[in-house]
Design a protein that fits this description.
Length: 184
Amino acid sequence: MAAMYGKPNRRAPRDIEKMVHTANSGRIHFERLLLHPIRLSLTFTQIWMEANDATEDLPIFQFIRRMASIANAPLTFTSFVVSHVFESPQSLFRIISAHYSSQLTNQIFGILGSLAILGAPADFLGNIGTGVRDFFYEPINGIIHGPAQFIEGLEVGTQSLARGLVVGVVRGAANVAGVVNSNL
């Protein structure tokens, strides 16, 4: 007994070595894994396609046929960084997929906001927002300098508000007409 515990055995038993080797087989080690940020611009324009029996039964084709056009939807994905990872390729792929799919889920509203039928709502709101800002800013800036400049600022602000509303509504109507025309 003393002989067994007296000298430390420097080598692990064969069955433990085999278990460790089996448990670690197929795993890969990255000291640092860095996937850089990705920025995409998604555009989808639907064109008329003839229905046939082979494609009509597939759900993906039914979805595409009903989908509206998308114009320059911005998709931005942050970088993926891990250090000292020791995983199987399948497990690492699941982790990376979860990272990017969660970001895609958060950006769904941005894609919906880029639907061509809505006519780029950010552009519409930008035009109106500029008009509203000028409507308040110009008279306030004018009142600082005097009553005549206040009236002038009120005029400039009102013109800017009217211009923003008209441009936003006309562009929106033009986009809706364009989408309806392309989908007929």
